Amino acid sequence: MSSFYLVGRVRRAHGIRGELVVEALTDAPDAIFAPGRRVFAGTRDGDIAPGQPEMRILRSSPFKGGWIVAFEGLGDRSAAETWRDRTFLLPEDEVEPPGEDEVFIHDLVGMRVVRVSGEELGAVSEVFELPQGLVIEVQREHAKPVLLPFNDQTVTAVDTELRVIHVDPLEGLVE
To answer: I want to staple 80 with a disulfide (CB 3.0 to 4.6 A). Which of 17, 18, 48, 59 is the partner?
Structure first.
C-alpha cells in the first residue's frame, strides 16, 4: 500500500456554501488544491482516516495565507463545520519529491539532533507549525525535551541520508 504525505489542514468553514479554509502544508498549494484534483482525509501521522472517502476539489483560491477550497459533497456550512482541524493527504507517488536542500516535515520526526560541536542532543519527537515558523521538539535522554526553531539561524545542516540535523542554537535555548 502506498504511503501518504500531509499536504493541508482545515482551519475552519468559510461562508454558507460548504467551503473550507485550508492551511497548505506544501510548497505547491496551487497544484495540490487545483480544481479536479483529489485529496484524502487523514490523520496528522499520514494515515488515511477510517471511513473517509477521497475528496475531489471543485474550486480553490488563495485566502489570507491559506486557501478557500470547495469540495464535491460539501454543500453547506453545517457539513463543512465537521471538517475543522482535519488533515488532507496525497499518495506518495502523486507528490513531487523534495529538492536537494529540502525535506518533508514528517521526515524530521526521529532524526538525531547534534550540535555543531558534535554533542548529541537527542531526537526529534514532534514538529510544531507555528505562525512564527517550524519548531522541533528534541527529546533528550536525561533531561526535559527542548524546543528549537527550525530555521537558518539554528539549523546549520540536515543530512537526510544519515537522518541527522546539525544545530547551533542560541545560548540558553538548550540548557
So the answer is: 18
